[in-house]
């Protein structure tokens, strides 16, 4: 599975996209997922599994970002100390 | 402090960033990103994993947060749930800007923000002051005509369903073809990982107490090595 097919075919939107390309993308996606990357077997994990894990992972990431945002906002809500600490941390560290 | 050089993913330029970010670089003893072997997709992933990009993003984010902070009056009656949402949107917008407009999801995030502002002002001018949750609801409740599957190859209904769900999760990908969705997903995941790293770093830098460790299954490409 070396090299990519031309991208122009992809952007045309027709169903001419090769399965190889899709599989390549799915493999690449699989390598991003922490769970599936470490337990990579020689044969490919099924596409459905990869997609499922991807959905779960993205939801997890969303949740983490929301959580971090909450904490950041709480921090920012504590007026002067937070802002001073922010500025200080940027300038001195 | 403004020294945003173009993000060249392969070259990690040494010290053009401001002094404030140098600390973060020093503290992050990150090894060079381990990346799949294929050339062009790994370029974007490397970009999101590079220190340089993280510094750029964190600078943007801090600046945006500071402005956000100023807009909130320093009274104790600040709405925290609203505040968290605002911070999330600010972070997402900064992330989208950091993507330099090359990806669908980043453009979708930015256009969402613009639409929101536009509609909000319009309605306020016309009649009653519309609350943003209402507008967000109306924008989000658009019919999901996901014409994702135009391919004969992956015609399995299970795969189709999952791809549809996935396309709903990634912003801007609802009506895209399968390879587009997959590609956007990879970039989006890498970007979000960087976002989480950055926000965690900011939190620990400001609050001087380490945030709780991330849930398991997340120790993928990054290591929270701060304290």
TrEMBL record, chain A:
Write down the InterPro entries for this protein, in alphabetical order.
bHLH_dom (IPR011598), HLH_DNA-bd_sf (IPR036638), PRE (IPR044293)
From the Swiss-Prot or TrEMBL record, state where the protein is found.
Nucleus
By its UniProt entry, which Gene3D superfamilies does this protein fall under? Answer: Helix-loop-helix DNA-binding domain
- Provide one Gene Ontology cellular component: cytoplasm
Residue span, BHLH domain? 6-61
What keywords were assigned to this record? Coiled coil, Growth regulation, Nucleus, Transcription, Transcription regulation
Q: CDD domains recorded for this chain? A: bHLH_AtPRE_like (cd11442)
- Does RNA-binding count among this protein's keywords? no
Q: Which residues form the signal peptide?
A: none
Name its GO BP terms in alphabetical order.
Answer: brassinosteroid mediated signaling pathway; embryonic root morphogenesis; regulation of DNA-templated transcription; regulation of growth
- A Pfam family of the record is bHLH_ILI
- Gene Ontology MF annotations: protein dimerization activity; transcription cis-regulatory region binding
Coiled coil segments of this chain: 58-85
Q: What is this protein called?
A: BHLH domain-containing protein
Q: Which organism is it from?
A: Eutrema salsugineum
Automatic annotation (TrEMBL), chain B:
**Mind listing the GO biological process terms from this record?**
regulation of DNA-templated transcription
Q: What is the protein name stated in its UniProt record?
A: IBH1-like N-terminal domain-containing protein
Q: Which Pfam families match?
A: IBH1_N
Record field: compositional bias (Polar residues): 1-16
GO MF entries: protein dimerization activity; transcription cis-regulatory region binding
Q: Which domain of life is it from?
A: Eukaryota
Q: Does the keyword Transcription regulation apply?
A: yes
CDD domains in UniProt: bHLH_AtIBH1_like
Q: Where is the IBH1-like N-terminal domain?
A: 52-113
Predominant location category: nucleus
Query: Is Transcription regulation found in the keyword set?
Result: yes
């Amino acid at each position: 599975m070396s090299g990519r097919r031309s991208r122009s075919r992809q952007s045309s939107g027709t169903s001419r996209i090769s399965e190889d390309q899709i599989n390549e993308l799915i493999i690449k996606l699989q390598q991003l997922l922490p769970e599936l990357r470490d337990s990579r077997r020689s044969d490919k994990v099924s596409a459905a599994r990869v997609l499922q894990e991807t959905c779960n992972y993205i939801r997890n990431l969303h949740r983490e970002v929301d959580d971090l945002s909450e904490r950041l906002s709480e921090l920012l809500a504590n007026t002067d100390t937070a802002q001073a600490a922010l500025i200080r941390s940027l300038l001195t560290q | 402090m403004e020294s945003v050089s173009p993000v060249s993913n392969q070259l990690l330029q040494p010290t053009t960033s401001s002094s404030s970010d140098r600390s973060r670089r020093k503290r992050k003893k990150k090894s060079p990103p381990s990346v799949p072997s294929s050339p062009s997709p790994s370029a974007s992933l490397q970009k999101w994993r590079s220190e340089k990009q993280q510094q750029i993003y964190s600078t943007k984010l801090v600046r945006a947060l500071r402005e956000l902070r100023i807009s909130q009056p320093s009274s104790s009656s600040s709405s925290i749930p609203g505040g968290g949402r605002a911070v999330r949107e600010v972070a997402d917008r900064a992330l989208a800007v950091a993507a330099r407009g090359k990806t669908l999801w980043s453009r979708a995030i930015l256009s969402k923000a613009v639409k929101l502002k536009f509609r909000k002002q319009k309605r306020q001018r016309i009649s009653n002051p519309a609350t943003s949750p209402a507008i967000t609801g109306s924008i989000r409740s658009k019919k999901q005509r996901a014409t994702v599957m135009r391919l004969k190859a992956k015609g399995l209904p299970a795969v189709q369903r999952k791809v549809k769900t996935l396309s709903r999760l990634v912003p801007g990908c609802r009506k895209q073809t399968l390879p587009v969705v997959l590609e956007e997903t990879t970039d989006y995941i890498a970007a979000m990982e960087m976002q989480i790293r950055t926000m965690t770093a900011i939190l620990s830098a400001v609050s001087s107490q380490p945030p709780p460790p991330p849930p398991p299954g997340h120790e993928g490409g990054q290591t929270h090595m701060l304290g």
